[in-house]
Specification:
Belongs to the NnrD/CARKD family. Keywords: ATP-binding, Kinase, Lyase, NAD, NADP, Nucleotide-binding, Transferase. Homotetramer. Helix content is about 45%, strand content about 15%. Helix 2 links the parallel strand 1 and strand 2. The protein has a single domain, classed as UDP-N-acetylmuramoyl-L-alanine:D-glutamate ligase (3-Layer(aba) Sandwich), CATH 3.40.1190.20. The chain has about 270 residues and is of the alpha/beta class. It starts with 6 loop residues before the first helix and ends with a helix. Helix 2 runs parallel beside helix 12. The chain has a nine-stranded mixed sheet, with helices on both faces. The protein binds ligand NAX and adenosine-5'-diphosphate (ADP).
Amino acid sequence: MKPSNHPDLWRDALPWPGPDTHKHHRGRLGVVSGGALRTGAARLAARAGLRIGAGLVRILCPRDAALIVAASVEAIMVDEFSSPEALFQLAGALDAVVIGPAAGLTEATALNLAALGRTGAALIVDADALTLFKDRPKDLFGCLDRDDVLTPHEGEFERLFPDLPVYGREVAASKASERAGAVIVLKGRETVIAAPDGRKVVNGNGTPLLATAGSGDVLAGMIGGLVAQRMDSFDAACAAVWMHADAASRFGPGLIAEDLSEQLPSVLRGLAPA
Ligand SMILES: NC(=O)C1=CN([C@@H]2O[C@H](COP(=O)(O)OP(=O)(O)OC[C@H]3O[C@@H](n4cnc5c(N)ncnc54)[C@H](O)[C@@H]3O)[C@@H](O)[C@H]2O)[C@@H](O)CC1
Ligand SMILES: Nc1ncnc2c1ncn2[C@@H]1O[C@H](COP(=O)(O)OP(=O)(O)O)[C@@H](O)[C@H]1O
């Protein structure tokens, strides 16, 4: 399949604020932070979610991380939780939640994911929250709904779906989406986005400038920010993947993950209705 992702597929579905909107209407995104030494990934994701238009973004922190995160954010809000049940309560007021970036390969991450799976929030599951389920992928899939999004790089994909890479990336992504019952974003040079209902798109505007630590965390936050604004999860994933690469190309050489969100205003201006 030739690269097929293009703004024509999802431009009309992008969320823009109307005259009577307020921040809660624009979508409420949560991002689960790792522990005290692992807060950067959540901050990258949260900032991307805010930049892409979610009206309200909260970083949900284990107790040891809360003051560290609070000291390093402004518009982003901070909550602390001390148990999966407390996380469940916090997430009840959110439209979408990102979990996984620097979350830690611990049972606490699995329990937190299970708690989030019991809320109405759409989940964007990345990084550690994928790797953790290497030997028990069904435990992960059991927590998911069809509007949830998994964002594996090839290493993470192989851990969850060891029998699928042999089919090639496109067929593998479709089979994985069907098996997981969620949208799959199989990242890489040509990212493949597949939905359980059979929709599939291959992205063609990627750039190797994105091969830098934390760029995947930013992508997860962008998808989360669009899903929080009630964009269909498959469309949101296609749009975020394209905009993420466009942001990288606009910045050019020297790009680090922090730069991606700062390019989003110009990416969005290029997509806004006239
Ligand atoms: N600013 C931050 O705090 C950042 C935190 N990060 C977090 O750091 C933790 C560990 O990240 P790691 O990079 O070690 O975990 P990974 O699962 O990305 O890498 C582990 C191993 O997987 C293999 N692998 C196979 N295919 C790969 C691919 N396409 N891309 C990358 N690796 C591939 C590599 O050999 C690598 O050694 C995660 O929780 C991650 O979310 C990273 O996201 C980077 C930025
Ligand atoms: N060579 C490449 N060409 C195009 N895109 C790339 C390339 N390498 C990485 N990317 C993109 O960069 C991002 C990396 O995500 P990930 O591996 O999860 O990084 P991290 O865990 O450091 O955040 C993905 O969106 C991936 O598609």
